[in-house]
Amino acid sequence: MRAIALEEHYAPPAFMDGPGHQTKEEAEAARAHPQVTAGLTRLIEQLCDIGEGRIANLDAAGLDVQVLSLTAPGVEQLGPVHPAGARRHLTRPRTAGGVAGCS
């Protein structure tokens, strides 16, 4: 029987620099609390990793497959200022390449 993890979140670096900037800003704002900053920094690193680190975590957890979902805020939050094509460029190319490299 295969073990499948659903709703596993990811975020490409371009997304974290754009719509996901709030998480990065929270990490910066928490500098007075090193444990909070370290936790947020690790969260960002894990969200952006769709390569070997994520595969190692899958193996360690005994999982065979992860269903990846873009983390919040989703691209629908971008509104009309960013045309649909621009939204796709924040996520799809890197995700497709990263996933293809991990098969």
Number of helices: 5
Sheet/helix structural class? alpha+beta
What's the gyration radius in Å? 15 Å
Supply the number of structural domains: 1
User: Beta-sheet strand percentage?
Assistant: 5-15%
Strand order of the largest sheet: 1-2
Compute the separation of the termini in Å: 19 Å
Model description:
This protein is of the alpha+beta class and about 100 residues long. The chain has one domain (about 5-100). About 55% of the residues lie in helices and about 15% in strands. It has helices at about 15, 20-30, 35-50, 50-60, 85-100; strands at about 5-10, 65-70. The protein has a two-stranded parallel sheet. The radius of gyration is 15 Å and the shape is flat.
Topology:
Layout: E1 4-10, H1 13-17, H2 21-29, H3 34-48, H4 52-61, E2 65-70, H5 84-100
Parallel strand pairs: 1-2
Features:
two-stranded parallel sheet; 103 residues; alpha+beta
How would you summarize what this structure contains?
The chain has 103 residues and is α+β, with helices and mostly antiparallel strands. 54% of the residues lie in helices and 13% in strands.
